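User: Batch of two.

Assistant: Item 1 of 2:
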Amino acid sequence: MEAFVSVLLKSPDAESPAISHAIFIAKMFHRRIVLATIGGNICDGEVLLYKDVAKQVQEKSQIETQIWHIEDASFSAALRKIENDGAGIIILDVKDDFTPSFVAAHFQHLNIPYLCVQKHFEDDAIYKNMFISAKAEMQGKDKIVWARYLSHLLKGKITIVAPAYKDAYLKNAVDGFVRTAKEHVADHDIQIQIAEISGRANIVTSMLEESHKYGDCLIIASTSGTMNWLGKIFGTRETKYIGNEYGIPILCLNPRKDLYKEGLYA
C-alpha cells in the first residue's frame, strides 16, 4: 500500500493553508494527496465543489490528488480509516476548521503524525528550523527521529529547548535527552543548538517564545495521548501548542511505546 498525504477539509476551499503545506510535503516525499471530508451525507452540489478543489490542487501542484468523503459513525473512527488506508501524515487547519481542543480529543489514538497549521506555507524555511523540548518524562524518542529525518532531507537544524533544572535527577534526565539527540544525528551532519531556559519556566510558553524569536520554524511536540476531564476544562499541553498565538505549525506525535528505551526522556 502506497502512503499518501491526507488533508482534512470542512469546506471545499482550495486556498486552505493545510493544502499549501500538503503540496510541499507531498513533493518532498513523492506522495499523492488525499483531501478528506468527514461527516454525514453531502449533496451532489457539494460533491462537485470538492471534486473541483481536488482538480485545482492537482493542476497547481502536478501531484495526483483525490477527494474522499467518509461517513463513519464517529470522527475518531474516520481518522482510523484514513490511517489504516495508508495516510503517512494528516494535515489540518486549526485556525478556521478545527479547534485545538477538538484535535486533542479526537486525534490522540493516531499512530501517524498530524500537522496543525494556521498560516499558508510560504517557503521551506519553516521545515528547516525545528524545535523540540528536552523534558524529564519517559517519552520523546519519536521527536528526535522526526527532527533528524526532516533535517537530513532539508539540510536543516534542530534547536533543543532545555530547562536548566537544579534538581540532580531532572538535570540528568535533560542531559540524557540532549546526549541521545546528539548521538542520533552524529552521522548525518546535522546542526544541533541548545536554548537553555529556567527550570521553573513553563515549557510550553518557553518553547513558543524561543521558537518565535527565530522566525519561520516548526515545533515537533509529543502529546500526552490522553484527554481527561482536567484537560477538557483547562486545556492540555498540546492544545496550548496547537492554538499558539504566533501561528507556528505544530507536528504532533502521539506516544509510541515501541520507540521508547530506558534512559530516554523528553
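Item 2 of 2:
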Amino acid sequence: MNDYMSKNISVIKNSGNPQKTCQEVCRLIFSHYEQGRLSAAEAMVLLKSSIVQLDDRKEGGFRFLSVCKKPGAMLAIFALIGALLGATFTLSGAYNSAQITVLIFSCFINLILGGMVFAKNPKSQCNKIFFATSIVLTGFLLTNFMSLHPLALAQITWIRLQMVSVVSFVLGYYLIILLFPNRLITQLSQFQKSVIGLSLILIGLCLTPTIFVATTQAPNARLGNLFFLILVQQFGLIVLTIYEIYKKSKVATKTRKLQLVIIAVGILFSFFGIFVFNFIFVQVLNTTAFIYLSNLATLAFTASFAYVVFYKKMFDKIQRLKKLSGLTWITVIGV
C-alpha cells in the first residue's frame, strides 16, 4: 500500500503547481484513510514525508546549490575557498595557527550562510541586508585581525576601519529586524530612518581622530573625545532592536514568535561576545589574547538567522498546508 501511495504522490508532485499539489496529496491520503486502507498513524507518516519532499524542492539551500552549478559561480566559489586556504597556510606560518584557523573558518561560514539566505529569495530586502551584514561581519573579522597585526596600512587605519565595520553590522542587526520577514525600507517610520541616518554619519566619523587618535606608544591608538558616541549607538541600537522584536512578537503567530526569539538570542550572543572580547578584555583587563574568540561570536547571529530561514520555515509551510487542504481530518488525527 505504501509503495502504491508513494507512486501516486510522486506523480502528483511532479505536476508543477505547488498549491494544487498540496491539495491533491492531502485528498489522496484522506480518501485512503476514509476507506480504511490507511491507519491514522500511516496517514500521518505519509503526510509528513510528503511535506518534507515538497519543501525540499523549494528550499533556498537547494536553489543555492543549483546556482553553484553554473561555471561562473563554481569558479568564484573555488577561488574563494582557494584564497581562504592559501591565506590560512600562509599566515599560519607567521601568526598563531589556531587563531588564523578560527578567523578563516568564521569568514567562510559567514559568507556561505549569507549567500545561502540571499539565494533563497534574492528579491527580499531583509535577505539582501542580511547578506550585506554577513559581508560586513567578515570585514570586521579581517580588520579586527589587522588591527593587531597591521599589514600594508598603519595600525590606526585598521583600527578606524574596524570601527566602521562595528557601527555597520550593529546597524545591520537593526535593519534586519525592522524588515523581517517581508517589510520594505520605504515603510519605515521617520524615527527609524533618522536612526539609520545618524548611524551613517557616525560611520564617517569613525575614519577621523574624533573616535580614535593615533599615538606613538603601543597600541598606537587611544580613544577619541567622541568615542562615547560609538557606545551610545551600539547599545542604543541593540535596545531598539530588542524592542522591535518584542513589538513584532506581541502580534505574531507561535511560529513567528519562536523565530524572533531565536534571532534575538543570536543577536545578543553575537553583540555581547564581541563587546566582551574586543572591549572589556582590551580596555579593562588590558589583554588582546582573547580577541580572536569574537570571530566565533559573529557566527551566533548568522547561524541563528539562517536556521530560522531554512528550518523554521517548515512550520509555516505546515500551517499553510492545513489551510490549503481544508481537510478537518488533519486536526482529527493529531497534526
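Residues 68 and 91 are 28 Å apart (CA to CA).
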